Amino acid sequence: MSLLERLGLSGRRVLILHHDDLGLTHAQNGAYLALGFPTGSVMVPGAWAGGVRGRDLGVHLVLTSEWPAPRMRPLTEGESLKDEAGFFPSSLEALWRRARAEEVERELRAQIEAARRLFTPTHLDTHQGAVLRPDLAEVYLRLAQEYRLPALVPESLEGLGIPKAFLPDLLRLMERAPFPRVRFLDPYGLPPEERLGFYLDLSRLPPGLYHLVHHGALPTPEGRALPDWATREADYFALSHPEVRRVLSEFHPLTWEEVGETL
Known about the structure:
Strand content: 5-15%
Largest sheet: 8 strands, parallel
Helix content: 25-40%
Shape: globular
Low-confidence stretches: none
Order of helices and strands: HEHEEHHEHEHEHEHHEH
Radius of gyration: 18 Å
Mean pLDDT: 97
Structural class: alpha/beta
Number of helices: 10
Distance between the termini: 12 Å
Number of strands: 8
């Protein structure tokens, strides 16, 4: 029986609206509070991780730190997770080339434990899809089961930029995972000026279980220190728009907390 069947939502359009990268900046946290949607996930190595409060917060597991600033460091001493300056690698390619699975497991466990000291996590997901190397995906899914936290598992791997060599093993892991698979939506790659249209076009989606990621941030000087500030502000303004709110009201809202209660 599927998750939607267990919830009595078969044939409905069901949406988990998910605020990524909480804890990265104060502007990110402020947008989470201002928008008022409950679901998001926190980057525990981020400078503002301790400033997030909410009822449906997950752990946004971090293994990369892609910008010159702000940079994030591992919580553990795994040398394969550090660049020459001691920060996380700046790209997935660098991470996947060097990361040792046992050091990844120690780091992810440390981030989950640190999150539990800050809030009560309801789920796990991962920054930039860093766990999509098959042996790291196995660690991710095993920790999710150990901590009894549902993990984000996409319904399809298409369009995620995953090396073809990874796909067979990843697909086998996904098929065995005891978590619902969601239709993953992420407008991050769209130009900011197209963001409002993306959200309005959600009204065209057919029934199903959707996990929609956004990166909304307040328009502040601190938030604009990030290289991608324009796309983050575009999410914030679009999700504040009354017509987008009307479109979102056409979906049945779901939280990861509610997902976890069914497992």
